[in-house]
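Cross-posting from the chemistry board since nobody answered there.

I work mostly on the small-molecule side, so proteins are not my area. We synthesized zinc ion and want a rough idea of how it might sit in this target. Sequence and SMILES are below. Is it possible to get a predicted 3D structure of the two together?
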Amino acid sequence: MAKIVILGSAAAVNDATHDYTHFLLIGDDGHPILVDAGSNPLGKLKYLGIDDDAMQDVILTHFHPDHVGGVPNMLMHMWLIGRQTSMRVHGLHHCINRIEDTMEAYNWQDWPNFFPITFHRLRERDEVVILDNDDFYMVAYPVKHFVPTIGLRITNKRNGRVLGYSCDTEPCEAVYKIADGVDMLIHEAAGAPPGHSTATQAAQIAQESGSKSLYLIHYPVWNVDPAPLVDEAAQRYDGPITLCKDFDIYEF
Ligand SMILES: [Zn+2]
């Protein structure tokens, strides 16, 4: 069974037990797909017994530090432990161009025997295919944040289940398309618009789009207890609600 491994659950201010929002998607073929890297996730992968060498696809949703700030450390780490397996990095032009510029600022072209990386620039429009393999069919939708940002809609090709991930967005038409009838909706709950959504708005979207379950992520943790967000969401949504926590693993 495919699974989702939550590596971080916090919004842009993290703490010791809630890292920036990023997660892994692991299908039956065993190749983990990483969604965002606000922190270098390699230590967590080792702790969880997940083979980082098998991770060949990285999706970067947008160029904000809490989503991509860990990429240079992750790539350096992989290089230093001797990775030779190639890697594909997917994202919008806005994000990928800046990632390449950042790596050039670190002179990565002078890092000897660096493993092969290919950058896949996604067009900024609805339903752009990111990947289509034996396990998953994954498409992106531009959502409404402060910089060009994608949300994801992922079909598990082995069992037909569908996962929506809002990423960082205020309520918008695209997020309803992402959430439409999904089995699982992972939705941010960072706070009021612009650029973000409250738990109440996430719940409203889950309810109106017929999502079968709601997972709240990317929520504030600094000097605030996030637990009441579940009750807040339950006022607007009838289905099961989970507050994502770091190291949670969900079957998909
Ligand atoms: Zn964010």
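Reply from a structural biologist on the board:
Welcome over. Reading the output above for you: The chain has a mean pLDDT of 97. Residues 3-251 form a domain with the Metallo-beta-lactamase; Chain A fold (CATH 3.60.15.10). Happy to explain the token format if needed.
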